[in-house]
């Protein structure tokens, strides 16, 4: 680790992008410096310059899902395309969120989530720039109707979606007597739940903890009479909003909370600490 001054840390990390840990060290050094205000411009730039994957190539669906999710946060709404200008506005807003969260240890999970979103926004920005240079438009297209639908057809979902009380009792309550079971409770109209769905985040969690943890989904909707039984199960388990994750062991819930795993299955480490290795 370089000398812990703002200047030394900036020289060490600015060229190839910042990790969350590097940013936190930089912020601490700035706060401890004689003139923190002198470093604010460099700090704002650093927050918006995350390290990016060595191999940034992703399936186009990754960008489509991300564009759909983010466009709901813009003035235009879900209009089928997310513009480069909108992405850059979202980057600024996400950077401000990161900085406010970085000063509050209680928001460590939210801070890391913001850093990962800045990383995704930079990847999407590069894709839109490439589209513009190819004459395809300075925006990324998506299909709103398809993005707002749950994928019921994948093999993983078909095998691991709990949709009745009897199945919940068998797969989750009795199943957790053999090994812990993680349940992702998702509202069918929750945008972040659908983002996780289309990114394949929950199956990625299952792969990450294979052999130590069973993972299932439970979709609920208090406005759909056809889902009354499974919605009642969610309510009985204390679920009032989503995406909500609960770990069961020996037939009982042992830990619950909001969860935002990414497409690699990362992001639930605190929830699962001490439950799985």
Distance between the termini: 29 Å
Approximate shape:
globular
Radius of gyration: 21 Å
Strand order of the largest sheet: 4-3-5-6
Detail the poorly predicted runs.
none
Mean pLDDT: 93
Structurally, the number of domains stands at: 2
Extended strand count: 6
The main sheet comes to: 4 strands, mixed
Helix content, binned percent: 40-55%
The number of helical elements comes to: 13
- Strand % is 5-15%
What is the SS-derived class? Answer: alpha+beta
SSE ordering: HHHHEHHEHHHEHHEHEEH
Structure, described:
This protein has about 280 residues and is an alpha+beta fold. The protein has two domains: about 5-145, no CATH class; about 150-270, Glutaredoxin (3-Layer(aba) Sandwich), CATH 3.40.30. It starts with 5 loop residues before the first helix and ends in a 5-residue tail after the last helix. About 50% of the residues lie in helices and about 10% in strands. It is built from 13 helices and six strands.
């Amino acid at each position: 680790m370089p000398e812990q001054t703002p200047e030394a840390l900036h020289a060490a990390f600015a060229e190839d992008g910042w990790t969350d840990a590097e940013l936190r060290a930089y912020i601490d050094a700035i706060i401890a410096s004689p003139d923190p205000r002198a470093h604010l411009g460099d700090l704002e730039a650093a927050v918006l310059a995350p390290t990016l994957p060595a191999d940034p190539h992703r399936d186009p669906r990754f960008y489509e899902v991300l564009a759909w999710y983010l466009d709901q946060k813009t003035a235009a709404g879900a209009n089928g395309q997310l513009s480069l200008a909108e992405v850059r506005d979202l980057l600024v807003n996400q950077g401000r969120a990161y900085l406010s969260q970085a000063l509050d240890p209680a928001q460590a999970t939210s801070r890391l989530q913001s850093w990962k979103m800045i990383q995704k926004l930079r990847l999407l920005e590069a894709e839109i720039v490439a589209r513009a240079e190819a004459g395809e438009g300075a925006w990324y297209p998506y299909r709103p109707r398809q993005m707002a639908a749950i994928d019921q057809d994948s093999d993983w979902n078909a095998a691991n979606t709990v949709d009745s009380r009897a199945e919940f009792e068998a797969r989750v309550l009795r199943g957790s007597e053999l090994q812990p079971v993680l349940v992702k409770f998702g509202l069918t109209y929750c945008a972040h739940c659908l983002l996780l769905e289309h990114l394949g985040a929950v199956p990625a969690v299952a792969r990450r903890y294979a052999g130590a943890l069973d993972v299932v989904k439970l979709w609920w909707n208090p406005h759909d009479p056809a889902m009354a039984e499974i919605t009642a199960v969610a309510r009985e388990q204390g679920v009032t909003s989503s995406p909500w994750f609960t770990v069961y062991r020996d037939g009982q819930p042992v830990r619950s909370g909001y969860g935002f795993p990414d497409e690699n299955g990362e992001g639930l480490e605190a929830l699962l600490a001490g439950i799985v290795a």
